[in-house]
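Researcher: Going back to the complex we discussed earlier. I've cleaned up the inputs and rechecked each line, so this should be the final set. Can you rerun the prediction on the complete assembly and write out the structure?
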Amino acid sequence: MAAGKGTGGVLASGVLCAAVIFGALRWEHTVALPVSSGKVVNGVHHYTVNEFNYYYVPTHFTWHVGEKVQMTVVDRSQSAPPLPHQFSIGRDLATRNNGFLHSQALAVGWKKNFFDGVPITAGGQTGPIPAFSVSLNPGQKFTFSFTVPNKPGKWNYACFLQTGQHFMNGMRGVINVLPAQGA
Amino acid sequence: MAVEMARPLMDPAPERAKRGAFFFPMMFMGILSAAWFLARFMWGGTSVPKGVDMGMGIGLTVLMLLSIGPMLGARGKLNRGEDAGAIGNFAILMVVAILMIAGIISTWGAIPIGTGYGGIYDVTSGWIGLYFVGGLLGLLASFMKGKRVPERFRNERWVAHNVVSFWGELVLLWTAFFVVFYLL
Amino acid sequence: MATTGVQGRAVEGTGGGGEPFAWSMVLPLVRAGFMGFTGYFAAAWITAMIGHTVIVNPLPATVGYVVGLLAWLAGSGIWDGWIRRAFGGAEAPALTGVERYFRFSSDPKATAVRYVIFNVLAFFFAGLAAMAIRIELLTPDSTKWWLSEVHYNQTFGIHGLMMLLAVAASAIVGGMGYYLLPMMLGARTVIFPRLLGLSWWLLPPAAVAVFMSPLIGGFQTGWWGYPPLAQNSGSGIVFYTLGAATLLTSSLLGGINIIGTIVYMRAKGMSLGRIPMFLWGLFAAGTILIVEAPATFTGTLMDLSDMILGSHFYTGPTGHPLAYDDQFWWLFHPEVYVFVLPAFALWLEILPAAAQRPVFARNWGIAGILGITMIGAMVGVHHYFTAVSDERMPIFMTLTETISIPSGFVFLCALGTLWGGRLRLTSPALLCLMAMMNFLIGGLTGIFNADVPADLQLHNTYWVIGHFHYTILGSVIFSWLAGLYWWFPKVTGRLVNEFWAKFHAWWFFIFFNMTFLPMFILGIEGMNRRIAVYLPYLHPLNEFVSISSFFLGAGFLIPAANLFFSWRSGKKAPQNPWGSKSLEWHSPSPTPYIVFPEGSEVTVVGPNDNYAAGAPEPFVWAPTTAGK
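Model: Rerun complete. Updated structure for the full complex:
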């Protein structure tokens, strides 16, 4: 093969390769996995959280106290058979001792639930739901709205199904609740 | 040029070796198929479920058995050096291969894949279908080589011989498939 | 050794293309990479769009992998080199120079060199994974500051699968075997050279997919891929199944070539008893692959089918999860003999030449290798101890323990060869002896695994980890290095630096044993394998193991540097630096493109190890007789 021959073709294939990778990833993040990061429609902040085995997309949110939020949770479990998943916001793990070190104790829930006393709007009804969390079967989607309560600080969300195995496998994320904007 | 001289030196396996050694990949493909066939008894239950496409199964088997004719014809012509005639037989076998692939696809889903029999039927027939795709490509390669460069076809007649041998294995495998999946 | 006039004669064109290396020669490799990634992302994207799903799901990942693999192959030069001419198109370009190393080539020597490069890279990255594992185990719970449990699972899964299928499976068989297979037989190439060329090109996509699997969710199952955990894992499991299937296919294409070449392309006079020991080892490996691989190969595809097609082989109402274990171990226990039999055979090739003594009880050695092949086919059953009824255990135990008898033949042959010989303790011979020592420990501890009462206690503990690292790392990788040093002059025409080779051999031996010997104690003390977090009483010993392993891992930079600098500027090697009688040393070093000169052929009059005083030269060259 003569030197230099074919360089153009390889360059072209490199450009094509970069374009396809860029396009595919862009499509994945905008069309297939819409993680609308707080798009405001009529004063309501819209968020989507996707549940996979065993991780969330995205894993981080920032809210302000007093904001109206509409949250959509989608179970996109990709296994066969697909698995149910949970979305629960809170603080301080409730654990069950299994003989291992503290960090390996079975995590079964939160001690403090973020939504305690917070009215939740879902399916046309509004009202506080004790220990509110979203548990979905594979392929299901659930949308609910609320106003961010005055509980600033770091909050976590996680899935505790299968006696906390999903949590141990990394199914968790962080919500940063900031004081009201302009306050 | 030295390079032209080099080619026969670097590929010195005689025809007998090339044809004989081809039975090792064929043996592997046979053992692999045997693994699939045996899996039918693990997952497919003890009897053939109602709803299998028996007509298509019998039809494809008869087609394969009939293809022994052109296959043996091709072998004889290759042995006698009648390359052009052998290429004609290859065309017939290519048509058979296409019909077989279409037939296999048409039997999918007769039994739902989620059941034991349906799962092993679909996967096994899909695998055999891949063999047919391979056979089709081999036939096509030999066919085109024979049409375009008869010289090379003659020098490398072992390729055509191996394609014919492979077709023989396909006949055997499909017949065994029919027996295992439709009769037992 | 004798050099006849025929070998000394220079043949025009045998040295290959005289063109010096130019960067443009690498372009086919680059093009193949671009096309592979393009194919993967385009196909996965389209599949995801059609199926209204996301790219990281199993089905788009599978379709993407298959298309990407085909696109990679298409870019590799397989079109010019094989497909086009097979369909009656233009003749393939004759690649005799440097460019054949960077594109699809039917030259087994170029393929073998590519194997070595690939194995070294895979060993490096999988070795980094091992280092990550040992960092995790430095403290009882490192999940807060190092890998989380899920990442730890992915790490040891990738480490295991890559070390076994991308390093051990092809290190000796691929790197040394495919290079020497035709030369030791007196042939100029293998029987299906293009299939052999193809076998290498299947490796990189599989390795890249497995290493990248965490990007689509990873797999949590370790290198076993057991369902139903596999099905409950992330999408990375499809890269596991596809990668394993591709690597197996690659091994098989090599195995077919090994057997076909040995059966059909021996030089005149090379009866079965005169086949070099190393080729017997390769023959055994190829046989195991052809006979045993189907069960495991189908298992990986059925696992994949459960993930993407909706069948229920291993899950759901009609699923049999344990069937996967049976299928898996049907090959993957014998697979360790695919790794280790060429290593055994390598000792019996190197030690006689180093000691200038014929192989002791040569035919018993061959019987040992073939005996392991046959008994090894049934040894997989000992992985089912915990899943079968008590009555079967004695049968399984007996079958498994029988394997030590033919293994003993090989050891006794090696020891008998050394007995009374004047061993030149060069670095390859030293590494062989170290490999034998390590395999002795690995083999003796294996008896406890085969022994049901002991195994019920020891299985799934660090005892097992220690055992198989002694056999694979301690034996196969030591032998791999021995072979690399031994045949380095053959491939490059230069000698490796003997001081650094020996220095590293001792470094490797000491830190290897410091790393893995304590694992037996850890296992007896109750440390389970595959856990990111362990109980604090195991901490001191784990700390010792981890620190030793860092020295062990860092030590591999020595042979890497040694091989590289020796290749660039090592001492020029004579044609036969070790005084070996084997046939491969009859051609000049480095090996010319055409191994043996045109117009001459070899007649074999004895095995290649007849070093006894007064024994005739085993290979006689004569001009080719007319009509041949």
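Model: Worth noting: The first helix of chain B runs from residue 2 to 10.
Researcher: Good, that matches what I expected from the previous run.
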